[in-house]
Amino acid sequence: MITNTIKSKLTNKKVFPRGVHPHDFKEQTRDRAIEAVPWPKEVVIPFQQHIGAPAQPTVKPRQEVKRGEVIGTAGGFVSAPVHASVDGKTGPLTTVLTPVGTRVSAVPVQTAEISQEQLEQDLKDFLQPQGPVKPADLIEPEAIVKAAAEAGLVGMGGATFPTHVKLKVSPERKIDTVVLNGSECEPYLTADDRLMREASGTVVRGLMLAMRAVGAPRGVIAIEDNKPEAIAAMRQAAAGYPSVEVAVCAAKYPMGGERQLIPAVLNRVIPTGGLPLDVGVVVVNVATSLALAHAVDRSRPAITRVLTLTGAVHRPGNYYVAIGTPLSHVIEHAGGLKDDAAEVILGGPMMGVTMPDLSTPVTKGTSGITVLTRDQVVRRQETACIRCGRCVDHCPLKLMPTKISQAVKHRDLELAKAYDLMACCECGCCSYVCPAGIPVVQYIKSGKAAEMRRRAREKAEAAKKA
Amino acid sequence: MSEAPTVTQENANAEQPQGPRSFLVSSAPHLASGTSTRCIMFQVVLGLVPLWLAALYFYRLDALILPLVTVAACLIAEAVANAMRGRDQRSLTDGSAIVTGLILAFSLPPDLNPYMAFIGGVVSIALAKAIFGGLGQNLFNPAMVGRAFLMICFPAAMGIWTEPVTLARIGDTAVDGVTMATPLGAAMDPSVLIPSLWDLFCGRVGGSLGETSALAVLIGGLFLVFRRVADWRPVLGMLATAFVYAAIAHRINPEFEGPMFHLFAGSMMFGAFFIATDYVGAPITPVGRILFGIGVGGLVMTIRLFGAYPEGVMFAILIMNALTPLIERWTVPTPFGGHVAAAG
Q1: What are phi and psi of A49, to 5 degrees?
Q2: pTM metric for this prediction
Q3: Complex ipTM
């Protein structure tokens, strides 16, 4: 923390200790303006695109639906409704594979025609909506939370936590700062970068609304220094708001993690097992902020999003896509895959999830599609740990990854827990730096899953006894 | 679209491009930094090159034969151990046996009989590494175990220090084998003249093959530190401790040599940059590595000043190797944000 403070003083850039510096590969798409993808013949809209209870379907097969119409209502408080993202006619309920790796129920919608002009106008309205808006201070916080809940907003950076839950802060909690997370530390991805450049005003509007909702007097826009245009655009957009400042962060992975971003920007450490709330902070992602502005000002639900399609595709870029559009359609629109494409990742290459085929639809949390080539795919022989300590030196949470992974490998969950297994944020820096090719974080993830199963089992047994 | 079960998914798709394409599935992260164990080991070898060049300059043919013999011995022992354990021979190419062989050779007297060096190499790998389970599993630094074995078996041969061929003597010393006291030996024996600091720094003094030139060690060692192959923590811990220890001892009793002498004499530099930085025998925790360096530095100076041996790097490393698990246990870092609360 001391060297950290000195470093950030010297360079005037916010930084957190440890972490890694992968090459960012952003040059492929950073200068590609956001482009609208035409509606596919059929979209498939999953009823679970968020953390929490799945939405309850409210449509019947062969029903005409309008874009923005509710087709699934929230299945609880920690849940989010789902809306039709296109005009069209529903098909029979089906299931799809989502990024979480589970099959969830979904509804296919045969889409109606949309003209290119309508599409472009829609994108324009999405990025820079016209028309007067109420000053954020004149809107009731409850109204903002309600609008977010009705619009089905979830964390669009990939975490997909329902936004209204995040914004509904109990009165005894004192939130003093909202951090707008524009760090986009994952290599390859540039969607947030483009949004901050092309929709800066709307993004700042969303931040103002989030600040109003949680009662925070201060807003900080955190952007990594590898996005100078976004920094300039956001500075300009925030110029009229004295309560909002732009914090330039060093480009370092995983800057965008809450546990790294908040220490870097505000010098506050989130206690292990705690939330940003515990240190008086709420973090919202750029895309979520934009969606919040739309939800409050125009009652527009989360039915479209911007994502980066990059890697081994013919026309990499940033695309504006209707939720439910199959990956195959987006990729086709971008000229198709290159011949050596071998791995399709939802999200970036550091934490993204691979998909076995392209039928998976784009969901609210799909921030990018990264396609890696056969040569890029890391397939390494696992060799013995040479105790080089690189994982320890790079773990942003100051854990001992190799110790945890070895304990998990030897099925000693207790030992793994003694090394703070459950504190791991799964950023993958350890696997990234390991010279022995050990899938360190993969072992840790399986250990965490085993511990969660054990807890569930214990709970079930306790319930049986009682 | 029925596929023969023997056809892999990928091949099937290559034949039927119109079918749904399938892709590799793996767990994140999907990128790697690109360093490998082999890459690290060969960088260590690269860091040892300046030492070897200095040795070739000072000891000529001996400096060529000895390292080749020990490296060969290590590789042979590794191959035999692999065969006995029913493993493939991949570990021969990871470079770890080569590094062990070189470190061992550079810590031996230049004039040592090659067959003794060979035995040392075999012991290093067989007794110190293979029986513990190979790479990454050994408790003690293999090269230091090999050297300790030789010290016990051949105490006389391990105490003969050849005079290096220096600029002044190139003309008149055609045959090598002129022996002399090492600087540390000289420091224990009042009748022998102590060499100048400059001679010590350059290496124009008696001593082990690769350790005599502090300059060469610094070049190779700093290369490793800047490449982040060697951790700076044990290096700094060891050298700073030795410096402070020697300075205090010198202040109390001026008969002890000063701190600069101790830094440049014997294997202090070599040990700090190339032996104390060995990953396997040292703690994995950042604080542990500093403590490890401090322990080595303190033990080296204690042995040098008060022990029967003129040099103590080998013993210091072995003792600290033994303490490593304990140090590691004591220095587990507190996670960022505190330990996980004891729940469920």
Answers
A1: -125, 20
A2: 0.89
A3: 0.85
